Amino acid sequence: MKLKNTKLREGDEVIVISGREKGKRGNIKKIVGNRCVINDLNLAKKHTRPNPQLGITGGIVEKEMPINLSNVMIWNSETKKQDKLSFKEEKGKKVRVFRSTGKSVK
């Protein structure tokens, strides 16, 4: 089941709207299906075994875990609020725009 979310993309600045990390902002690092990994958010401790061949020392490592895309919204830096996205056609190209201001997303 491969879902493609065209509204949010890697590198977009988003704000978490529900869950333990509610109210925190970060950039999307990776999108996998209907979930996304955000830089330095939703950290979980993972116990790793040492592997001398790969140079892994082992121990407890903090790892970024994915968050569902329904729990994040894009951050509008102009209004300093979360916002929804819609699409508009400009010069024959489909462009993402903020719903509140109508300006295109960079």
Quick description:
The chain is an all-beta fold. It is 0% helix and 47% strand.
| Main β sheet profile | 6 strands, antiparallel
The chain-level structural class is: mainly beta
The tally of helices reads 0
Alpha-carbon distance between the two ends: 30 Å
Fold and architecture overview:
The chain has a domain at about 15-75. By secondary structure, it is mostly beta strands. The radius of gyration is 17 Å and the shape is elongated. It starts with 12 loop residues before the first strand and ends in an 8-residue tail after the last strand. It is built from no helices and 10 strands. The chain has a 6-stranded antiparallel beta sheet, with no helix packed on it. A two-stranded antiparallel sheet has the order 4-5. Strands 9-10 form a two-stranded antiparallel ribbon.
